[in-house]
Amino acid sequence: MSPDRASGPTRRRIVEAALELCATAGPATLTVSAVAERARVQRLTVYRQVGDAAALLAACQERIETEPSRPDPTAWEVWPDPVDRLLVALEAIFAHYRATGPLLGKALGDETANPATARLTAPYHAMVERAVDTLAAGWTGDPSRSAAVRAALRLVVAFETWRSLIGESGLAEADAIDVLVGAVEAAAEPYA
User: Fold this and answer.
1) What is the mean pLDDT of the chain?
2) How far from the centroid of its chain's Cα atoms is residue 123's Cα?
3) Distance from CA of residue 104 to its chain's centroid?
4) With contact defined as beta carbons under 8 Å apart, do 176 and 155 qualify?
5) Percent of the chain scored above 90 by pLDDT?
6) What residue segments make up the domains of the chain, in order of their start?
7) Superfamily covering domain 9-65
8) Measured CA angle at 152 (ends 104, 95), to 5 deg
């Protein structure tokens, strides 16, 4: 059976082991041997079920893209008020970061050192761009402020911002959301 057609509990165990290794040691260190050891299978089983290290990263990406906590920016379009939309979005985004934080943090840290890691971070970067596009609507009637609003939105939805405010500073999530909404509101205001 070719690796792209393999499925079942053994393949799932291998992919979960690869994700665990990516979250603890970083995707740049992912090897077939390490995954085999963690999944308690032979290296040949990894090759048969998934493939080489590049295929393991691809399988991890596929698994990440189906993560139940992954936010869907189109769901926020129903909120006409931009502040309400941002509040709902930040709650969803932060729930996703809580669920995927260790893996996402390691993958983002490794992406410049290991271009193959970009497979794991591509869904994150795409989500950020879709979030900014969705959240930017309605913030200001002043077109000169739209670049500032988009920049503020990109900052507030970024994983590093979440990690800095909540993980490193120990700020409560609700307080972090208040700070971030205030930052976007400030960016939308014309200079006095």
Assistant:
1) 89
2) 6
3) 6
4) no
5) 59
6) 9-65, 73-188
7) Homeodomain-like (1.10.10.60)
8) 35
pLDDT at 38 over 50: yes
End-to-end CA distance of the chain: 67
Amino acid at 33: S
Contacts of 109 (CB under 8 A, 6+ apart): 26
3-state helix/strand/coil string of the chain: CCCCCCCCHHHHHHHHHHHHHHHHCCHHHCCHHHHHHHHCCCHHHHHHHCCCHHHHHHHHHHHHHCCCCCCCHHHHHHCCCHHHHHHHHHHHHHHHHHHHHHHHHHHHHHCCCCHHHHHHHHHHHHHHHHHHHHHHCCCCCCHHHHHHHHHHHHHHCCHHHHHHHHHHCCCCHHHHHHHHHHHHHHHHCCCC
- Answer yes or no: is pLDDT of 144 > 80: yes
